[in-house]
């Protein structure tokens, strides 16, 4: 975990959950798994405040806990990747809006805000938002959309309480019903006849009642799978054309239940792919031609897995993602170093490893110019030198030096730069908001007055007079 990730996690948490919760999170990020006593000592806060902060972080699936079997102590651990997922929440909502329209978007927004929630509470909250916005959306439509989101694995069931200890409850996952909505999940607790005092319940009865109130949360892997598939389709369309893009999109859609970390999708024959295409303008022979073309390419996105049923084809997800990463990094090098350096970078990527003389010959560049460009990329860690000694003493005059690209390290570098840019933008926004606080408050007051005057159907002269309260310079400053 890098310092950039910790800083960005702190900024994201500060915006979403406040300073006290952020202090608790940062202490866990810096110190690793810690007990409650250690966290309180580190953050110098009241025990009640730390406990509330941990409850919020656990509810948001940012922090998890584990009870040590040896000493019986409960330790809390922060998950950095789950904190950074907060930056992707708008993309999650946009994805669901495209697939399930506004109702699905409201459901996902509510889940993202609450962290985890029961289905009856979720339906009530979404219905209240819909009514407040003046839309006519009944509960049945919300319920059906929610069930569809669960069945397509965008929402999953939280782990249940398998047993209780003196320190903390033990959670376990029900893999067979993680994506199944039971009839009891749709019924509020008040309607089940189980609303009794908790003090009158035994531990076993209390555990069963807690498990009856199943909570649900988003499944990030499923969102990432859809976003990844979109990138693969865009890459295929750019490389082979729109028909190839539709074919790959259909193969990915028909294999939607493939495990997220699988290297290939389900094998399909050309007839089934043709039947699943959204348009009927393409013939089965054309589909087969495109499949064979993509399977025969050196950087193949599609592979032929068998000859039965006229040929079985699958999308090589790992290779497709690798191709997308390569093209993205090539674009970054183009923006940062120019077209000639991009030519060198792509050449090293394709050939694997080359010495300086080979690079000059293949790229048709002058030695001085090629050396300068290679040094620039080497200084920025986009390429590295691979040493191959001819003797065991590693003497410099008997060692060959080859330029190579470590794709994983370069991708990590690009990701860290993205995190740093995101954090700088957040800090800049915070600075500008504080600097122009008075101007923003004045603009909000004027907007409220104008909205009230519009409802009262005031004269245009009066409305214009209110608008003139802000000078042209202030208006221009707000627009910037």
Give me the Rg, rounded: 29 Å
The strand count comes to 13
Oligomer: single chain
Unreliable runs? 194-201
Distance between the termini: 36 Å
Dominant shape = globular
Number of helices: 21
Beta-sheet strand percentage? 5-15%
Q: Structural class of the secondary structure composition?
A: mainly alpha
Biggest pleated sheet? 3 strands, antiparallel
Can you walk through the features of this model?
With 480 residues, this protein is mainly alpha-helical. Helix content is 60%, strand content 11%. The chain has helices at 3-17, 19-31, 36-43, 47-59, 80-84, 89-114, 119-132, 139-151, 203-212, 220-240, 242-254, 270-276, 284-296, 317-337, 339-351, 356-363, 367-379, 407-435, 437-455, 460-467, 472-479, and strands spanning 63-67, 74-78, 117-118, 155-157, 160-164, 169-172, 215-218, 268-269, 302-306, 312-315, 353-354, 384-389, 399-404. The protein has a three-stranded antiparallel β-sheet with strand order 3-7-4. Strands 8-10-9 form a three-stranded antiparallel β-sheet. Strands 11-13-12 form a three-stranded antiparallel β-sheet. Strand 5 and strand 6 (169-172) form a beta hairpin. Helix 1 runs parallel beside helix 18 and helix 14 (317-337) runs antiparallel to helix 15 (339-351). Mean pLDDT is 85; it is low at 194-201.
What attributes does this structure have?
three-stranded antiparallel sheet, 13 strands
In short:
This protein has helices spanning 3-17, 19-31, 36-43, 47-59, 80-84, 89-114, 119-132, 139-151, 203-212, 220-240, 242-254, 270-276, 284-296, 317-337, 339-351, 356-363, 367-379, 407-435, 437-455, 460-467, 472-479, and strands at 63-67, 74-78, 117-118, 155-157, 160-164, 169-172, 215-218, 268-269, 302-306, 312-315, 353-354, 384-389, 399-404. The two termini are 36 Å apart.
């Amino acid at each position: 975990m890098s310092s950039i990730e910790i800083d960005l996690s702190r900024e994201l948490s500060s915006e979403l959950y406040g300073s006290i919760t952020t202090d608790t999170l940062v202490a866990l990020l810096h110190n690793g798994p810690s007990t409650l006593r250690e966290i309180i000592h580190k953050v110098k806060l009241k025990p009640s405040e730390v406990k509330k902060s941990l409850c919020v972080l656990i509810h948001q699936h940012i922090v998890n806990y584990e009870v040590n079997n040896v000493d019986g102590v409960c330790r809390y651990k922060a998950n950095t990747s789950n904190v950074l997922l907060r930056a992707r929440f708008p993309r999650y909502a946009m994805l669901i809006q495209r697939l399930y329209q506004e109702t699905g978007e409201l459901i996902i927004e509510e889940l993202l805000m609450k962290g985890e929630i029961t289905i009856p509470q979720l339906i009530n909250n979404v219905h209240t938002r819909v009514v407040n916005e003046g839309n006519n959306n009944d509960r049945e439509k919300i319920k059906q959309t929610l069930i569809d989101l669960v069945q397509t694995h965008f929402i999953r069931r939280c782990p249940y309480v398998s047993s209780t200890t003196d320190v903390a409850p033990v959670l376990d996952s029900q893999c067979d019903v993680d994506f199944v909505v039971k009839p009891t999940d749709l019924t509020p607790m008040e309607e089940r006849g189980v609303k009794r005092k908790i003090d009158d319940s035994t531990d076993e009865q209390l555990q069963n009642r807690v498990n009856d109130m199943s909570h649900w949360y988003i499944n990030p892997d499923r969102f990432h799978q859809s976003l990844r598939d979109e990138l693969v389709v865009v890459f295929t369309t750019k490389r082979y054309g729109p028909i190839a893009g539709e074919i790959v999109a259909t193969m990915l859609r028909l294999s939607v239940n493939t495990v997220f970390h699988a290297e290939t999708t389900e094998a399909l024959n050309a007839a089934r792919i043709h039947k699943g295409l959204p348009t009927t303008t393409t013939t089965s022979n054309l589909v087969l031609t495109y499949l064979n073309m993509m399977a025969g390419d050196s950087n193949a996105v599609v592979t032929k897995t068998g000859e039965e049923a006229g040929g079985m084809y699958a999308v090589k997800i790992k290779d497709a993602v690798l191709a997308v990463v390569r093209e993205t990094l090539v674009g970054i090098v183009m923006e940062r170093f120019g077209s000639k350096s991009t030519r060198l970078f792509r050449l090293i990527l394709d050939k694997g490893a080359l010495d300086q003389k080979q690079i000059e010959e293949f790229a048709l560049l002058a030695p001085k110019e090629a050396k300068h460009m290679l040094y620039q990329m080497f200084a920025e860690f986009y390429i590295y030198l691979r040493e191959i000694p001819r003797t065991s003493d590693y003497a410099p005059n008997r060692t060959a030096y080859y330029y190579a690209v470590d794709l994983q390290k370069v991708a990590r570098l690009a990701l860290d730069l993205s995190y740093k840019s995101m954090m700088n933008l957040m800090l800049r926004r915070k600075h500008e908001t504080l600097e122009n606080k008075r101007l923003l408050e004045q603009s909000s007051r004027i907007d409220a007055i104008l909205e009230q005057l519009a409802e009262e159907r005031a004269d245009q002269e009066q409305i214009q007079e209110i608008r003139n309260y802000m000078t042209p310079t202030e208006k221009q400053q707000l627009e910037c």
